[in-house]
């Protein structure tokens, strides 16, 4: 989850974040057809070198806080900078106010400006399509690619309440570059205006739309995967379950990055990371309150994935962070998937927080997690 969509309305800011592979919380593109530079091996090598140099340059200024025992130095530097930006506790705000708060991406941008770190080239063109009233998708195509190409349907985070396509633009672009696949990022309707199960139903409708329309944007309808971060990870897994139950073609793979997988807020990681940043236990309660109609909805298999029937789901990659209330959710889900006979690869990244996945420009573990996700997607889709 990322906790805002305060906008800058400049293409330059959006392209900067896209080049970093970040969750671009505070930038809004002025167009959905930005043309970017074609990817080359030399560009990729330069990007990796720049990221490595940048991560070494980013260091904290003080000791780790009590909640962050074992935090990696680059991650702590991001959290320190975030703390200087004046954000208010999300759980005390309205949804509209929460969307205006400073974010981890703001902190990363500031760190990069302070260190004079250049933005890598970006490598995807975009266009938008309407799936149905209220539900839009943004289609990312690798610049200069020939097809048909595999397609990945991507679901953003935000607790089903906040964030949007622009918020996670950079994360999607980073995975497009690493996989060479087309990505379709879904703007599902959000709470509190649209309660459960609206976001879940919208997400499945978008998946079905991709199956039917992939050929129209140079995609291969037989090679489809799903990816989601946080609430989006919950949605991605739910889409796979709905596809199975409705006897629709299932994704070939699912990547679930620190997914919300249960309604139990007394798990070991909720207890250990109750005061963590940028996500804590109080915020998760706030998200559940905004999206669910009642506590009974929390028992739905689409919310409590760990209690769902997981048999027959696609091969899965589950990624978690040690300093995250949702770590236990992801770990338990990986165990449940394995127990259900689903080929599952799970990795927890130590010393990093929720939202680390999009910070590859400054946090080495983020680059490793993105590489892991991309490798598993390519293995499933490029056969």
UniProtKB/TrEMBL annotation:
SUPFAM superfamilies: alpha/beta-Hydrolases. This is Alpha/beta hydrolase. Gene3D superfamilies: alpha/beta hydrolase. GO terms for molecular function: hydrolase activity. PANTHER family: AB HYDROLASE SUPERFAMILY PROTEIN C4A8.06C, ALPHA_BETA HYDROLASE FOLD-3 DOMAIN-CONTAINING PROTEIN-RELATED. Residues 1-28 form the signal peptide. Residues 152-357 form the Alpha/beta hydrolase fold-3 domain. The keyword Nucleus does not apply. Keywords: Hydrolase, Signal. It comes from the Bacteria. It holds the Pfam family Abhydrolase_3.
